[in-house]
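Memo to structure team: turn this sequence into C-alpha cells by end of day. - J.P.
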Amino acid sequence: MKEEQIICYSCTNENCFIKKHLHLEQMTQYVSKKQNLVCKKSDRFITEGSPLHGLYFICKGKVKTVKTGINGREQIVRLTKNGDIIGFRGFGTGQKYLIGAYALEDTVLCNFSNETMLEILKEVPEFTYALMLFYADELNKSENNIRKIAHMNVRERVIDLLLYIHRKFGQIDDGVIDIDLSRKEIADFAGTTEEQAIRVISTLKKEALIKTVGKRIGILEVATLRSEIMEHKYF
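Reply from structure team:
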C-alpha cells in the first residue's frame, strides 16, 4: 500500500459520505487531516482484531470485509464500492476492528483517524445525524441477512447474492456484473461451500437464467430469479 493525496473538494465521487457533507463550513478543518491509501488488488488494509485507527471511505475501487468463523475460515460479510464506509463496526465502543478488509481491485481509500472522527461527531450535528441513520440502516440489513440465511436453501442464497451484486454494482457492456468474484468468494458470502456454489451456478447457467464470461457472471432473467426468492421478502 502507498499513500496518495486526494483533495476532497475536487473529488468526483458524489456517493462519498464525506463529500455529501462538504457544504458544511465546519468540515473544512477536518478533511485536511485525512490520509489517503492506494491498495493493490488482494491487499489487506484491515486485519481483524487489530487496533482501531479510524474509518475508511472508498474513493475509488471495491472492497470485501470478512469475519473469521469456524476453523479459521473467513466469511465475507459485506461487499463495498465507491463512497462506502469501512471499519465502522466497533468504532466508538471498542478498541479493535471487528472485521478484516481486502481490496478486490486497485482501490483508493480515505482514512480519518479516531480522533478526527470523534471531533466531527461532536462538532457537526448534521453529519452525526446522517451517520446515525447509516448505522440504523446497516443494522436492519444485518438482521435481514441473518433471517435469510436461516430460511433459504443453498440455491436461494446464491440467487440472492447474485441479485444483490447485480443491484449494487450493475452490469458492464458485455452484460456481466461489474465485480470480479471467485467462486470461493461467492460461496463465502452465500454461506455455503465452493463446490455447492459451483453446482448452483452451473445449474442456473443450464437453465439460461445467467451467463458466465470467465469468472464474471451476468444475469439474463432478473424477474425469474427474483420470483424464486420472493417468499423471503426480496427487496
